[in-house]
Design goal:
It is a single chain. This protein has two domains: 1-30; 33-129, Cupredoxins -  blue copper proteins (Immunoglobulin-like), CATH 2.60.40. Helix content is 20%, strand content 38%. It has one helix at residues 2-27, and strands spanning 37-39, 46-53, 56-57, 61-64, 70-76, 82-85, 90-93, 98-102, 106-112, 124-129. It has a five-stranded mixed beta sheet, with no helix packed on it. It has a five-stranded mixed beta sheet with strand order 4-10-9-6-7, with no helix packed on it. Strand 6 (82-85) and strand 7 form a beta hairpin. It is elongated and about 65 Å long.
Length: 130
């Protein structure tokens, strides 16, 4: 009886671990028609670089064109920083460019999504899509 209970518990634990891994992968997807962002896999027509350093981004506002494939690169100049545009479900990692096409015009606030120190909460800027 104990052996059967141990096997059942092990199987339930394995299912939960696999489900958690699968859910995390799905949550990190950056391709979504409902958010107006597409990772096209095509060559970029435009490029922007967001530089992060000492609890701030190098510009308060970055502007890109609606519907234009744009390569966005995050350069972390003093350690680990990341960028999350919550409204677009878009995440950027340092030195890993992404080519995205944003189809919805508007202003989107973004923030550093890696706890980088005491000034972390002040690391915000805007992405304007015209």
């Amino acid at each position: 009886m104990k052996k059967l209970l141990l096997i059942a518990f092990t199987m339930v634990a394995a299912v939960l671990v696999l489900a958690a891994c699968g859910a995390n992968k799905a949550d990190n997807s950056n391709t979504s028609g409902s958010t107006g962002v597409e990772e096209t896999g095509t060559a970029a027509s435009a490029k922007i670089t967001i530089k992060a350093k000492r609890y701030e981004f190098d510009q308060p506002v970055y502007t890109i064109k609606k519907g234009v494939p744009t390569e966005i690169t995050l350069k972390s100049e003093d350690g680990m920083h990341g960028v999350e545009v919550s409204d677009l479900k878009l995440k950027l990692d340092s030195d890993e460019p992404k080519v995205v096409t944003i189809n919805d015009a508007g202003e989107y606030e973004f923030h550093c999504d890696i706890m980088c120190g005491s000034g972390h909460s002040k690391m915000v800027a805007k992405l304007v899509v015209e």
